[in-house]
Specification:
By secondary structure, this protein is an all-alpha fold. It has 2 domains: 228 residues, Growth Hormone, Chain: A, CATH 1.20.1250.20; 197 residues, MFS general substrate transporter like domains (Growth Hormone, Chain: A, Up-down Bundle). It contains 20 helices and 2 strands. Strands 1-2 form a two-stranded antiparallel ribbon. Helix 5 runs parallel beside helix 7. It is globular and about 80 Å long.
């Protein structure tokens, strides 16, 4: 048997696997803290006249007040956030490769520990340049933690529950945004907020001694005996009977005799036509998801008078989309591909509708509702893209592939704040100034067009629902050549099935399906 068949004995998500999954995935809350920290730490607070005629901040104390980052120095705040995102970009690709070479577990916990350390260290910054450097390092380690943590958490459970577990991880990020808003309202000094968003994360380092290495990674490295032991350990902790545990005997990995010694890099993602197509489509779609997500987030920043309420709403609106993602992914008539296409198309329709409704002189409920709908749709697409990509890329390059895709997403995140420069000045808009009206609607036209094009590109990719996960790059072409299709009576094409001798997985028998 292979690893996936082993999970049929262990259980797709037994009680012990659930504990391990939660111990890793809950760190997503801390990731949300770090990603959006600068919204509060870099807020340009209002000033009032204090004693002696000195201007002092009202109610809050941010880095803007600490280092006088106002006027012609405002760009520094944006630069600090850009450096954080640039760090995330590098961490995605470099730390992802390290985890493919040295294992998921050691790289994940080391990156998490270093992230918490540099985030806490930023509290004592005496200069904005030092703070900027530490935020860059925090971004670098965060890029690795988000990527490797997601892969490790998913690889400890059966693939039949990946839609639910993947959606849950994304939902935790949304919850993290709401918790951050609460923390920021309590810790109004930026140094206190840095402590509050870093120190509690130490709790997520404690499971190091309980979390095993990914059996999928071990199997892909031809460490068959070690992979067997991890599966048997999970089975024992899940309460599986000894006779059933003894049936967990893995066959030698299908990877060729040199695959465990072969070094995989970004270039491996273009080694064949099939893997290159998946790489390019995923890179573009991740870019669009990030670009539109952060762009719509910035566009919705004025939803409420309070910045705390605005950020909380930004997180709250994502939850319905994440739930819809979990509900649809395992439906045969929807699957991964059709669901992703639908979410991206919905974002396109919402953004195009905003373009036609948009009038800079009037703030309408319809515009706000469509903006929130677009934000929910792109959040759901972002949730799904993690799951879909992790199933499209073979195990030997899964972290490299997802790291490269996530790198594209970070580029989108860096560019998104500048899109609103295309709007022009709404205060000069009028009914007869068509050019200004069009300029104000340009960002939504861009988000809509990119999302619709991304939906079209997904058509080029295969459906992964109920399909065996590829371990090597060669498996992609072999799976393609071995699959067969048949038509249902209602004329709808069924998902690809493996030949009868390999098609032994009863997905419906797995929990949570």
């Amino acid at each position: 048997m292979d690893v996936e068949e082993g999970f049929r004995i262990v259980g797709a998500c037994g009680r012990y696997q659930l504990l391990l999954f939660l111990s890793i995935s809950l760190s997503s809350v801390v990731m949300a803290f770090q990603m959006v920290l600068m919204v509060f730490a870099g807020e340009n607070t209002p000033l009032t006249i204090g004693k002696g005629g000195k201007r002092i901040p009202v109610g809050k104390y941010t880095i803007v007040d600490e280092w006088n980052l106002r006027g012609d120095r405002e760009y520094i705040v944006s630069t600090i956030q850009a450096m954080f995102m640039f760090g995330v970009l590098l961490g995605n690709i470099l730390i992802g490769q390290l985890s493919d070479k040295y294992g998921r577990k050691p790289i994940y916990f080391k990156a998490l520990g270093l992230l918490l350390f540099v985030s806490f260290l930023a509290t004592f910054s005496s200069d904005w340049r030092i703070f900027c450097a530490l935020r860059f390092l925090a971004g670098f380690f965060q890029g690795g933690v988000v990527l490797v943590g997601f892969v490790l958490a998913q690889e400890l459970v059966g693939s039949s529950v990946w839609p639910i577990t993947g959606s849950f991880i994304q939902l935790l990020f949304s919850v993290g945004l709401m918790i951050l808003a609460l923390l920021a309202s309590i810790f109004t000094n930026w140094r206190g907020l840095c402590v509050a968003t870093s120190v509690p994360g130490i709790i997520f380092l404690l499971p190091y001694w309980a979390v095993p290495e990914s059996p999928r990674w071990l199997y892909s490295q031809n460490m068959t005996a070690e992979a067997e032991e991890v599966l048997r350990h999970l089975a024992r902790k899940n309460g599986i009977s000894t006779p059933d545990i003894s049936k967990i005997v893995l066959q030698k990995s299908k990877s060729d005799s040199h695959s465990s010694k072969k070094q995989y890099s970004v270039l491996s993602l273009f080694s064949t036509r099939s893997i290159a197509k998946r790489t390019l489509v995923m890179a573009y779609t991740w870019f669009v998801c990030s670009f539109s997500y952060y762009g719509l987030t910035l566009a919705a920043k004025d939803l409420a008078e309070s910045i705390y309420v605005s950020v909380a709403l930004s997180g709250l609106v994502e939850i319905p989309g994440n739930i819809a993602c979990a509900v649809l992914l395992n439906r045969p008539w929807a699957g991964r591909r059709r669901t992703l296409i639908a979410f991206l198309a919905f974002v396109g329709v919402s953004c195009f509708s905003i373009m036609f409704l948009h009038d800079p002189s009037v703030k309408t409920v319809a515009r706000t509702a469509l903006a929130l709908g677009g934000k929910g749709g792109i959040s759901a697409a972002f949730c799904l893209i993690y799951i879909y990509a992790s199933e499209l890329f073979p195990t030997v390059v899964r972290n490299v592939g997802m790291g490269s895709s996530s790198m594209s997403a970070r580029v989108g995140g860096i560019l998104s704040p500048y899109v609103h420069m295309l709007q022009g000045d709404p205060s000069h808009a009028s009914v007869n100034s068509g050019f200004t009206l069009f300029s104000a609607a340009t960002p939504y036209l861009l988000y809509g067009a990119l999302s619709v094009f991304a939906a079209g590109s997904i058509v080029l990719l295969p459906e992964t629902l109920n399909q065996p996960l590829p371990d090597t790059i060669a498996d992609i072409d072999s799976h393609k050549s071995e699959t067969r299709y048949r038509k249902l009576k209602n004329g709808v094409e069924e998902l690809p099935l493996m030949p009868a001798e390999d098609d032994t997985t009863d997905v419906k028998s797995q929990p949570w399906v």
